[in-house]
Amino acid sequence: MASRRVRLKDIAARAGVSAMTVSRVLNQHAHVSEVVRARVLQLVKEYDYQPNFIARSLVSRRSRTVGFLVPAINLSYFFEIIRGIETVFGRNGYHLILGHTGEDAARERAELGVLRSRQVDGLIIAPALNVNDIEPYLALQKLELPAVFVDRCFPGLECSYVYSNDQAGGRLVGELLLRLGHRRIAFLAAALRDPEYCRMKSCRDFLEAAGVKTDRRLVRLAGVTRADGYREAGHLLGLAAPPTAVFAHNDEVAIGVYQRAREMKIRIPGDLTVIGYGNLHWSGYVDPPLTTVDQKPFGIGSEAARVLLERIEKRGTRPTRILVEPELITRGSHAACQPRR
């Protein structure tokens, strides 16, 4: 039996039971005696039996796979979401397939087609920033393919959605900056679309309601990387009247600001307060440790996986919206505003 691929019926023959009984053992069915279960599992281990998932999916009409369309796999934020997704699905016998879109709408459409061709049981989608056409997502609904959106979504699209409360997160930053006495505050946003823009707008709205007016020259549309933060910081810190504080829409961009400020001999936080967003795993280990907002990305991923699992196993579940509350993490990159020297 070891000279060829071991089949389920081979295990059944050696165990002296039916193929159905072996299948029940592998699927952790309750109605199997412990003696038979132990004998089957011993043979599975002895012969390194690997179930034929293609054959099983034809019978069960499930592939036991789910897809995740991720726009930037190199960002720690999305890596933490992936960890949350895998934790839930791994415990439930599902495998995760990633489709990396690189923040590109055309590539996202192509990756969506690939995942559909793989017959995934469901999808978790973090749309690319430049996606404006929701037709591919509407097609998923027509196919009754369960899908959950994370981080970004679209007005008018009836979908399950798990996201961080960026409005509350932006307000937390605004409250801190107001207490510190900052008035010239720069905002580095990603795009004129939720959620990155939402957290910036919330912060600005709070400050303006408190009497702190926004200088539009200090509002910049940046990208999502350290290089983007570095570039925009060079512009802002070179102004005749530079900002005393910078609020970056993510931690990666904030670290780019760190690098440029250091080159320009600008002290953080003595001369410049820098606040990030995301609380990535390394943000407490930079110098100085970064003050930021924890979006709970692992929690976003695990909640999205839980919602999708419910939709896969209970068809017809109505769209669900779950709001994950953020937390302000105060460290060493903020200080009270100092008079200009």
Automatic annotation (TrEMBL):
It comes from the Bacteria. The keyword Transcription regulation applies. Gene3D superfamilies: 3.40.50.2300, lambda repressor-like DNA-binding domains. Residues 6-60 form the HTH lacI-type domain. SUPFAM superfamilies: lambda repressor-like DNA-binding domains (SSF47413), Periplasmic binding protein-like I (SSF53822). GO terms for molecular function: DNA-binding transcription factor activity; transcription cis-regulatory region binding. InterPro entries: HTH_LacI, LacI/GalR-like_sensor, Lambda_DNA-bd_dom_sf, Peripla_BP_I. Keywords: DNA-binding, Transcription, Transcription regulation. Transmembrane segments: none annotated. PROSITE patterns: HTH_LACI_1, HTH_LACI_2. Pfam families: LacI (PF00356), Peripla_BP_3 (PF13377). This is HTH-type transcriptional repressor PurR. The gene is purR.
